[in-house]
Write a structure and sequence with these properties.
The structure holds 3 protein chains of 3 kinds. Chain A has 11 helices and 2 strands, in the order ααααββααααααα. Chain A is an all-alpha fold. Chain B is built from 9 helices and 10 strands. The chains are: A mainly alpha, B alpha/beta, C mainly alpha.
């Protein structure tokens, strides 16, 4: 029984990690290629969730909604890149932080204007509803398993994209030497827009997938964004591999911390105190892990080139 | 000329630095004695910059030792080496661009005095800083430009300012990374005259591409090729050295 | 002080912030006095941040943590006086602002040293994200720790006291905050022109230069970060007393963002930048908030405009480029 619960929490941690990877991969790609810190990444997550909820409600199909979330988030990303982000590549980080902070205000209030303050609901598609038995677990929600699968696919797809394709070659070249790639005759502006749209689409996908687990509402992207920051700081900013490892560390630490800390503290503290202290400590745990990682590896676990 | 019996101020022994398969510094041994200008020359890519970085402490060597003013500084940080009296100028000028020339020098004066943790007294009314800094600017001929922001100084003036900063630090040795770069003939001539006198204050390790300046100033020259010192000697010895002629001067002769 | 254009603007801003609430109080408009108090306290918080950000170039995206700690210092000390339960070691809490400020400043100084010591090992984007993450850590702690209100926050039932002043009178409390603000702006000015300020600003302009004259940038920055934290914490204590309420939202990353926004709206590194920024911000909030519920949407547009097209902020616009001696 206890073991079954622990396995379930392990899978939940894995699922959170996968979600975070979808967010963090875009953030770290955009930073690696363009040197841009994008706070509005959480807004694109929200765009994906809203697009999926609205389209799924209108068409009755989660899958059309999911496709819409990819398209809408990518399009929103491309438009924002074209109108605003482009002007920020040569600016310092402070300007980037402020401008993208301004974008959050615009996105959030804009969404509240259009959709109101009440959350929208998105149902899990019938195909993935229900639970399945797994070794050691009586029943685990199929939808969560599917999310883990999607994350693994995206991770593999990104690996193929970056290491095997022409676009990937350009992305790698863009990371190491912007002038070189411009000299090679690659249209750097288009490349940047494509990378930004790709990162946005991943964020939108994450938003849509999580939207069916929680409610779809304004501001849903912000906590996830901050977790994604923790992920890429731990992993090493600019490294996709770092994003994957960091996401799994954060996902598992957070989930298992909340599950294990209160009972563990209960061994040494009175039950009521252990519950409170455990919950507080669990809420801070990933930040403590981050601080520890940074104390020893100031540039993260997989530092990108100096 | 150079007193080879004198205790070296700076002594580099068997220094090694590799980047992957490339040995950028390959067992360099080199010293700097009181009163001399020791020029370090070599073709582009010979590893001069890498060597300078290791001497200043911005790069950590993989092997070998660096001794300065009687102590081992191989593991010492940049700021600490500067405090010990290693004064450097940069290949590309490195100044606080928003500060005036004067305040740039004042920063060095306060660093020398070891008193950066003073929070209230305005520096611009602090005579002990102002007077010393002005004196340094006068020595390099920049007194008239004291109030101009470093970013607005000409290229040559920025070089002079760097030297004023090194002077203000009261350095026991100067490490000058291509001070002539980008200077017109007139400026180079003036700077050559100035450096000629500076060696009596503290010895100079001079990295320079301007061969006229090197031959005019250097007491000794070391030639660096592919990370190795292939020859060290007086100007005449270096001019005559066959290995140097093929490896390096051949291109110029 | 020579009367440069910027000094004249500063004087005008200082007088404006003093005269408007005085007049409003005469005309029986306490709400305007409260708005002015809000401006003064936010300007104080941003002046603190301006030491790290403006002078040191340290883009702390987590300064709300100090603002919040200052606020909780006020809330917690006062709550013990009210409940009658001693805090620890027989200490009974306090409703005296002077003592609360000392607690707030010391707590924030220590927190600043701890957070700074780790964060300053990194730079650039890492620094931004790490300061943000540390603030989130404290934010989640405040939410999950039930002893002092948790998510619901903590009310200060009666505004804390200051000798010789009736802090319940809006104008008196404003004058107190205004006085603290002016003293702290004076400290900022002294700091900026001192040897310490020289080293700090030089480290922002050129870190290698500072190291190669023999000053370690780390020690200078850490000290600046702690001083900056203390000033922002003091503002937090006043803010809690202004609202008679403290909650985790004071620690939130929105708050950190707003503090940066205040500085940018006014002009980075400028002596009165935070005052100008806080005035603009509170006036936007009040004026736009009166017209539309969605005022933050327009704030976003304005902020975007300032970042993209008017980087000097208000003071930069009025007084031209900054001079640094």
């Amino acid at each position: 029984m206890i073991l079954s619960l622990a396995l379930e929490q392990l899978l939940n941690g894995l699922q959170l990690g996968v979600m975070l990877f979808l967010m963090a991969a875009g953030l770290t790609l955009i930073f690696g290629v363009m040197g841009l810190i994008n706070l509005a990444h959480g807004s694109l997550y929200m765009v994906g969730a809203f697009a999926c909820a609205v389209v799924a409600a209108a068409t009755g199909s989660f899958w059309i909604g999911l496709a819409a979330s990819l398209v809408c988030a990518a399009a929103a990303g491309a438009i924002v890149e074209f109108l605003v982000i482009r002007k920020l590549y040569d600016r310092d980080h402070l300007d980037q932080v402020l401008a993208t902070f301004a974008l959050i205000l615009i996105f959030s209030e804009g969404a509240r204007w259009v959709f109101g303050s009440f959350p929208l609901y998105l149902d899990i598609p019938p195909l993935l509803a229900g639970a399945v038995p797994l070794p050691g677990i009586e029943a685990y929600p199929l939808y969560r398993l599917a999310i883990i699968g999607v994350g693994a696919l995206v991770a593999f797809g990104l690996y193929l994209l970056i290491s095997k394709t022409r676009l990937g070659m350009r992305i790698r070249a863009g990371e190491s030497d912007r002038e070189m790639i411009a000299a090679l005759g690659v249209d750097i502006r288009t490349l940047y827009t494509v990378v930004f749209a790709l990162g946005s689409a991943l964020a939108g996908l994450a938003g849509a997938l999580v939207g069916a687990l929680q409610s779809v509402q304004v501001g849903m992207g912000e906590p996830v964004l901050i977790l994604a920051f923790v992920v890429i700081v731990i992993g090493g900013i600019g490294s996709i591999k770092g994003a994957l490892v960091g996401a799994l560390i954060v996902g598992l630490t957070d989930t298992l911390g909340r599950f294990l800390l209160p009972p563990l503290l209960g061994l040494v503290l009175p039950a009521s105190t252990a519950g409170t202290v455990g919950a507080s400590l669990a809420a801070m745990l990933i930040y403590i892990v981050m601080a520890l990682v940074l104390a020893f590896r100031p540039r993260g676990l997989f530092p990108a080139k100096a | 000329m150079v007193d080879l019996a004198a205790e070296p101020v700076l002594e580099i022994t068997g220094l090694v630095k590799t980047f992957g398969a490339l040995r950028a510094t390959d067992g360099v041994t080199l010293d700097l004695r009181p009163g001399e200008i020791h020029a370090l020359i070599g073709p582009n890519g010979a590893g001069k910059s890498t060597l300078i970085h290791q001497i200043c402490g911005t790069l950590r060597q993989d092997g070998g030792t660096i001794r300065f003013a009687g102590q081992d500084i191989s593991r010492t940080g940049v700021a600490e080496r500067a405090r010990l009296g290693l004064g450097r100028t940069f290949q590309v000028s490195s100044l606080a661009p928003e500060f005036s020339a004067l305040r740039n020098v004042m920063l060095a004066v306060q660093a020398k005095a070891g008193s950066s943790f003073r929070f209230f007294k305005p520096v611009m009314r602090d005579r002990s800083l102002l007077d010393t800094a002005m004196a340094m600017l006068e020595r390099v001929g920049l007194a008239g430009r004291a109030d101009i922001a470093a970013a607005e100084l000409s290229h040559g003036e920025r070089r002079q300012l760097e030297i004023a900063i090194a002077l203000a630090l009261g350095s026991k040795a100067f490490l000058l990374d291509e001070p002539m770069a980008g200077m017109g003939p007139e400026g180079s001539k003036r700077l050559t005259g100035f450096l000629d006198g500076l060696r009596h204050q503290a010895p100079i390790l001079l990295v320079e591409h301007d061969m006229d300046a090197v031959f005019a100033l250097a007491d000794r020259i070391s030639v660096l090729v592919y990370g190795r010192v292939i020859a060290t000697g007086t100007v005449d010895e270096i001019r005559r050295d066959p290995a140097v002629r093929t490896a390096y001067l051949g291109d110029h002769a | 002080m020579d009367m440069t254009r910027e000094n004249i603007i500063n004087l005008v801003l200082a007088l404006l912030l003093l005269v408007v609430p005085l007049a409003a109080s005469q005309m029986g408009q306490p709400f305007t006095v409260t708005l002015a108090t809000r401006i003064a306290v936010l300007a104080l918080a941003a002046t603190g941040l301006n030491i790290a950000l403006g002078l040191g170039g340290l883009v702390s995206f987590g300064h709300a943590v100090f603002f919040g700690i200052g606020g909780y210092a006020a809330g917690i000390l006062a709550s013990h006086v009210f409940s009658g339960e001693p805090m620890a070691f027989g200490f009974e809490g306090s409703n005296q602002m002077a003592l609360i400020w000392i607690f707030a400043v010391i707590a924030c100084g220590l927190a600043g040293l701890a957070i700074g010591a780790i964060s300053l090992r990194t730079s650039g984007v890492y620094f931004i994200m790490i300061t943000l993450a540390f603030a989130q850590m404290v934010y989640y702690f405040a939410i999950s720790w039930p002893a002092y209100g948790g998510e619901d926050g903590l009310s200060i039932l009666v505004r804390n006291q200051f000798p010789g002043i009736n802090t319940m009178v809006p104008l008196s409390f404003f004058l107190l905050c205004y006085g603290v603000l002016i003293v702290c702006i004076g400290l900022f000015a002294l700091l900026r022109n001192s040897r310490f300020g020289t080293a700090l600003q030089a480290a922002r302009q050129n870190e290698v230069r500072v190291a190669s004259v023999g000053i370690s940038p780390y020690g200078i920055r850490l000290t600046a970060f702690a001083i900056s934290a203390m000033m922002t914490g003091l503002a937090g204590a006043l803010y809690a007393d202004l609202n008679k309420f403290v909650s985790p939202s004071m620690l939130s990353w929105h708050m950190s963002g707003e503090l940066i926004v205040l500085i940018i709206l006014g002009g980075t590194g400028r002596l009165f930048g935070p005052v100008a920024g806080a005035m603009l911000y509170v006036i936007f909030e009040f004026a736009l908030g009166g017209i539309t519920e969605r005022w933050q949407f327009f704030l976003g547009l304005i902020l975007l405009g300032v970042v993209l097209f008017a980087r000097g902020g208000l003071i930069g616009l009025l007084a031209g480029k900054a001079r640094h001696g």
